[in-house]
Amino acid sequence: MVTESQYPPVDIPEVDFWGFLFERDIPFPQDKVIYVNPETSRQHTFLDVKNTSIGFGHALETQWNWKKGDVLVTFAPNCIDTPALNLGTLWATGVVSPANPAYSAAELAFQLKDSESKAILTMPALLGTAFEAAKIAGIPRDRILVMGDEKCMEAQHFTDFVRKAGHVPKVRRRIQLPSDLAYIPYSSGTTGLPKGVCLTQENMSANLLQMEVTQSELLWDGGNNGEGDSILAVLPFYHVYGIAVLVHHPVFAGIKAIVLPKFALDVWCQAVQDHKITYSYVVPPILLGLSKAPIVDNYDLSSIKVFVSAAAPLTKDIVNAVWNRLKIPVKQAYGLTETSPGTHVQRTEDWQKAIGSVGRLLPNQTAKFVSEAGEDLPVGSTGEFWVKGPNIFAGYWKNPSATANCMSSDGYFKTGDIGYQDQDGNFYITDRLKELIKYKGFQVAPAELEGLLVGSDMVADACVVGIYDESQATELPLAFVVKTEKVKNVADEKLEKEICQWVTSKVANHKRLRGGIRFVDEIPKSAAGKILRRLLRDRIKEETANKRVKSKL
């Protein structure tokens, strides 16, 4: 059956995203501080973000003759400059393609070439990788800019780039259509290399308004210090979850964000205590640490009113453990890169009523669960989750066949995730049709690692699956490997170490083979040559179950 959102529809203005954020009646003072670097105390107000975005966009147009649809790849850890420079690219009618700063030069070069990027925005510490990737992709070195507090001799800082552009216009000369592209984040596919996900101006505006119905409790004023709520911006700014709730929402709602470049539990706790953080977006591994790590007792986290967890499955046990220890509610949310990202967010008042649920369908969407035979399923029945709405992406970049495969004839996006809904309209996501592995919220494509592995002279064939590690509350990539004749007589333990070290030298941190390697005589495949991944995954589950039985005897 088709389910419509229980929320009233929201009005989505027919404007581009820059106009949506800045050309409106701003409900808070424009000198409201939005972004803070706690290490240097550098900060940006709402007006700073707006003016910097205009200046950067103007510089792109005048210095580099930026055209509509030109792509800028951002390659950096979290930085308070990122929001303004992303939005400045949109002001210049460009497109932002965020890249993981842990990427190797080869991985970054792939995204640069595939997205047809014209320039790179990074930080001084990453220039070595950026220069190497740019050379591979054919991007001139002078098209690499840096941001952040530190300047360097090797590349131009964006502030100098803006200064050289001279007088900034007061009126935008070019305005985009709601259907024009805004972002091309890359989502790892289950087959082949990562795919660019085309997110439009309307996608961005719509999803902010959709998610706002469960975030209206966040206030820009009031509270103990009169400055309103504050959030801790530690989720990656290159991940669509971080883009939505940390790059865009603070500007939209006037919420102060304390920006951390990366997560470390002690630094996170210290920032919460020092800045009286009231609202925290997290992923399950952070909650796992908060529920178990002894160091948490050294800090006062009582200012936090609620956690919002997304990007990976969250167990009831972790939710209950966080509540029992900290007495802080945990709301769950759900979405995908292709849905901009949010389709569901629990209401705070519902968090304890339906633990394990991702909440109710957000406004302006319809959804259904579909059987393997393609039939709509009733409430309570498990099937693949399909969804339709203004937040659904425009398709995969330069990949019409992949786009066609994931869209139904009546316009639904086939998420590849399995679940059901209950009688109260709460949705549950229980499993995944897709083969993607999610390591701490980051996507790992088995096919990408398999392609790398078989390129080694130690590996004849390979299959990669995800195994769930309860101790870390995340999936880990594990490889089944067939040895080549060259290393057939090498001891398994020694060869496993060598292959894992080799892979580590080639990939980003989240793609490492943390689940280890199992050596097999052959990889099971269908008559058509497709890897029967399920058989190997079932083998791991059986081995795990047997170990549990033995441990009880």
UniProtKB/TrEMBL annotation:
<dbReference type="Pfam" id="PF13193">
    <property type="entry name" value="AMP-binding_C"/>
</dbReference>
<protein>
    <submittedName>
        <fullName>4-coumarate-ligase 2</fullName>
    </submittedName>
</protein>
<feature type="domain" description="AMP-dependent synthetase/ligase">
    <location>
        <begin position="29"/>
        <end position="397"/>
    </location>
</feature>
<dbReference type="InterPro" id="IPR020845">
    <property type="entry name" value="AMP-binding_CS"/>
</dbReference>
<dbReference type="InterPro" id="IPR042099">
    <property type="entry name" value="ANL_N_sf"/>
</dbReference>
<dbReference type="GO" id="GO:0016405">
    <property type="term" value="F:CoA-ligase activity"/>
</dbReference>
<feature type="domain" description="AMP-binding enzyme C-terminal">
    <location>
        <begin position="448"/>
        <end position="530"/>
    </location>
</feature>
<keyword id="KW-0436">Ligase</keyword>
<dbReference type="Pfam" id="PF00501">
    <property type="entry name" value="AMP-binding"/>
</dbReference>
<dbReference type="InterPro" id="IPR025110">
    <property type="entry name" value="AMP-bd_C"/>
</dbReference>
<comment type="similarity">
    <text>Belongs to the ATP-dependent AMP-binding enzyme family.</text>
</comment>
<dbReference type="InterPro" id="IPR045851">
    <property type="entry name" value="AMP-bd_C_sf"/>
</dbReference>
<dbReference type="InterPro" id="IPR000873">
    <property type="entry name" value="AMP-dep_synth/lig_dom"/>
</dbReference>
